[in-house]
Inverse folding.
């Protein structure tokens, strides 16, 4: 059942990235209609943008994320930070993964994330709040969860999605401001008549593109968090540690700094503390923690996970 789910996720990843490509091409065509009156060439520009973003994501996006979140090396003078690399090394060895780089983020909210373009370039980061509020077994469970993201290449997908969403949001924001402040094409657009409807369609794409981009990003992260929980249990053989770690996250209502940033979906838990509701659930980057706990409790009695 688990492998069936992983297989579906791989196909879903392909579908999602095709969706991003279609979205960027549609956005480029909309910008061409609104600002240049058509004429061709937008699709080529869009493809060039996608290639450029992927190249940047491959070589530098992980460092950009760490820099934006002000991640630092563990402080050996702090006991919980001094033992963190040893915990990660033991789990990486058990999982058959290279030792990832370990970082700490000064933030009172308990949270963690993984990034890196490949297992050889893996990075895990933990907030000081998590290290202070969890015991060793719970930290191990969270670390195993993050190593699962590295092993499954979720970390690459997550950081690429973050960059693609960021590009779409910035382009749409700048284009809308230019349009409403007189920078757009106002001569009826289009060639051979019918420019009005085409321009309205372009404007609709410009407004809706960020929403679809965010929904695509949310779909990516939601599925992978639950799978990483299960993989963490498989690695540690300690379902209660993963369950209790999630209970700590669920009980703590401190929001991470940069909670609403482009990297929100990378964290192990939704980084902002929002009131539940159908709109909140639709735009949430993570499945509800109680649902994740319930799913783990369902498999806690399975001997394969002990």
């Amino acid at each position: 059942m688990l492998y069936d789910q992983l297989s579906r996720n791989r196909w879903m990843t392909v579908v999602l990235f095709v969706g991003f490509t279609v979205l960027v091409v549609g956005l480029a065509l909309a910008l061409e209609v609104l600002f240049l009156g058509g004429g061709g060439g937008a699709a080529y520009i869009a493809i060039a943008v996608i290639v450029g973003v992927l190249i940047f994501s491959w070589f530098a996006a992980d460092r950009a994320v760490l820099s934006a979140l002000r991640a630092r090396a563990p402080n050996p003078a702090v006991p919980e930070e001094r033992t963190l690399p040893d915990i990660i090394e033991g789990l990486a060895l058990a999982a058959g993964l290279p030792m990832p780089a370990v970082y700490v983020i000064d933030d009172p909210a308990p949270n963690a994330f993984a990034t890196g373009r490949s297992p050889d370039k893996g990075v895990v980061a933990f907030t000081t709040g998590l290290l202070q509020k969890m015991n060793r077994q719970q930290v191990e469970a969270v670390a195993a969860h993050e190593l699962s993201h590295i092993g499954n290449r979720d970390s690459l997908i997550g950081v690429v999605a973050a960059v693609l969403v960021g590009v779409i949001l910035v382009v749409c924001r700048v284009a809308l401001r230019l349009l409403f402040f007189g920078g757009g094409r106002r001569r009826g657009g289009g060639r051979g008549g019918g420019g009005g409807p085409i321009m309205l369609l372009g404007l609709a794409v410009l407004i809706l593109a960020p929403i679809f981009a965010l929904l695509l990003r949310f779909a990516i992260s939601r599925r992978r968090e639950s799978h990483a929980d299960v993989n963490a249990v498989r690695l540690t053989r300690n379902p209660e540690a993963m369950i209790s770690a999630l209970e700590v996250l669920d009980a703590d209502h401190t929001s991470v700094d940069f909670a609403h940033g482009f990297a929100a979906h990378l964290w192990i838990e939704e980084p902002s503390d929002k009131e539940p509701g159908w709109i909140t659930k639709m735009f949430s980057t993570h499945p509800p923690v109680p649902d994740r706990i319930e799913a783990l409790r369902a498999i806690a009695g399975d001997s394969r996970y002990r």
Notes: The first strand starts at residue 101 and ends at 105.
